[in-house]
Amino acid sequence: MTRITTINPATGEPIERHELLDAMEIDAALDGAWAGWHAWRIVPAAARSERLRRLGAVLRRHAEEYARTIVLEMGKPIAQARGEVEKCAALCDWYAANGVAMLADEPLPVHDDGTAMVVWQPIGPILAVMPWNFPIWQVLRAAVPILLAGNGYVLKHADNVLGCAAMLADAVVEAGFPEGVFTNLPIAQDDIARVIADRRIAAVTVTAGVAAGAAIAAEAGRHIKKSVLELGGIDPFIVLADADIDAAAEAAVRSRFLNTGQVCIAAKRMIVEASIVESFAERVVALTKALAIGDPMDSATFIGPMARSRGRDELHRQVRNSLDQGARLLIGGEVMDRPGNYYSPTVLADVEPNMAAACEELFGPVAAIMTASDAEHAVALANSIEFGLSAAVWTSDTAKGHRIARNIEAGAVFMNGISASDPRVPIGGIGKSGYGRELSWFGLREFSNAKLIWTR
Fold first, then answer.
1. Model pLDDT, residue 198
2. 393 Cα distance to chain centroid
3. Is residue 42 part of a domain?
4. What burial letters (b/e) apply to 161-186, b meaning 16+ CB within 10 Å?
5. 3-state secondary structure string, 44-97?
6. 350 within 8 A of 281, measured Cβ to Cβ
7. Is 339 inside a domain boundary?
8. What is the CATH number of the domain that holds 322?
9. Which H or E run includes 310?
10. Would you please indicate which residues are annotated as catalytic (active-site) residues?
C-alpha cells in the first residue's frame, strides 16, 4: 500500500500519513460514484440548489478549522485562508440563488415548424484533477456548478493537501449530499489514466501545469471524453502613462504577492509605459518592502512559505537565469535563511521577452517589470507568449482601455482592477492556458448535455 506524508511548508515537519487507494479500492470508489450519480441526477435542480446552500453554511460553521488546515498543509497566510473559505461559501450562495434559472429549458425559434427547446441534462461523474494553491476554492469552483447540473464529482487532489480533500468530502456529507455524489479519490499519479479510461467517468476537468494538463487531455481524447483545462498563465498587467500610478502599483503588488505569488491569474508581467516605468518601479519596491513575511498562522503575515521546496528551488533558478540574461534586481532574489520554504519577495526590472521571467510562469513571489514604448508596444509584449489566461489594463481613458482589451489575447481582461475569479463571470484561457470555462452559466453548462427536443 502506498503512503504519502504531508509536510508543513513553514517548518519542514511531517503532518500526517495518508494511504492511497489500491486497484480494488479505486474500483469500489468508482462504483460508489456511479451509483451516487444515478440517484443524484433525478433530484430536482431546486433540491440540488438547497444542498449547496447548506454546504455554504457548513463552510462558515467550520471556517476556522478549515482555514487552519489550509495553512498547515500549503502555507497560505491565515487571513488569506479565512478569505478562501468565505469565498467558497459565497460561491455556494450564488449558485444556490441563481443556478436553477440557468438550467431552465430554452425555447428555440423554429417559427411555424412546431416547437423546439434545449434541455440541460447531466452527463455523469466528472473526474477533477486539482492543484494545491487554493486547495478548497479550486475544488469547489469546479464542483459546485458540476453538482448543481446533476453530475457527480470525483476528486483527485494534489498530494500535499490530502487533508483538505478529506475535509471537503466530510463537509459535503454534512451538507446532506447523497453518498457517492462527491467522491474523494486519493490515488497515485500513475492511476489517473486508468480512471479516465473507466466507463464510469464521463469527462475530466483539470487545473495543472502545461505538461500534466496535456497528458490528461490526451488520455481523455483517446477515450472520446470531454476535458476542461486551466493550465496557468503569465498574465500581463499593462500600466499606461495616464493611469493612476499609485493605485496601479498597489494593485500590482497585491495581485502578484497574494498567496505568496502562487496564483494562476496574477500580475506576473508588469508592462509599463516608458515615461512612468521608473516611478512605478519605485512604488512597487516600496510596497514590496512593506509586506509582512512570517509565520502563516499569524494574522499579520502577508507572505508565508512556498508550498513546496522544489517549487522554491525552481523559482530561484528562474530568477538567477533572468538576472544572467540581463534583468535588473531591485529587491529580493534570495532563498531566505530560515526554516521552511521561504523565498524573499522579489522585483525584477528591465525584463525582456526572451528572459525566463517573461516567458516562463514564475509561480512564487517574484514580479517582473517590462518597459513599453507606447500602448501598441504594450499590447505586442502582452501577446508575445503562448499563454492567454487573463490580463489587466490600467488607464484613465476608458475608450482606449476597451480598444486595448479587445486586442489582448486572453480569456479575460480586467480594466483598472486586478484579475480575479468570481462566480458571476466566466474564467478560462486560450493557447497554452487551456480551454473551456468555469463559473457563471458557462461553468454550469460546460458538463451538461444540451439536448434538443423538437416537436413537429
1. 98
2. 21
3. yes
4. bbbbbbbbbebbeebebbebbbbbbb
5. CHHHHHHHHHHHHHHHHHCHHHHHHHHHHHHCCCHHHHHHHHHHHHHHHHHHHH
6. no
7. yes
8. 3.40.309.10
9. helix 309-324
10. 230, 264
Give the per-residue pLDDT at 34: 98
Distance CA 66, CA 59 (A): 8
DSSP tally for the chain: helices H, then strands E: 15, 20
pLDDT in tens, 352-366: 999 999 999 999 999
Say if CB 225 and CB 196 are below 8 A apart.
yes
Q: Does some domain include residue 427?
A: no
pLDDT of residue 176: 97
Tell me: do 40 and 149 sit in the same domain. yes
Q: What pLDDT, in 10s, does the model give residues 53-98?
A: 999 999 999 999 999 999 999 999 999 999 999 999 999 999 999 9
pLDDT of amino acid 76: 98
Placement of cell 531591485 in the chain: 330
Residue 350 belongs to domain spanning: 236-422
Closest CA to 291 of 301, 279, 299: 301
Provide the pLDDT confidence category of residue 396 given band limits of 50, 70 and 90: very high
Listed as own residue / partner, the contacts of 164-167 with beta carbons closer than 8 Å and 24 or more positions apart are 164/66, 164/69, 164/70, 164/73, 164/74, 164/135, 164/136, 164/139, 165/135, 165/139, 167/65, 167/66, 167/69, 167/136
Q: What is the mean pLDDT of residues 225-242?
A: 97
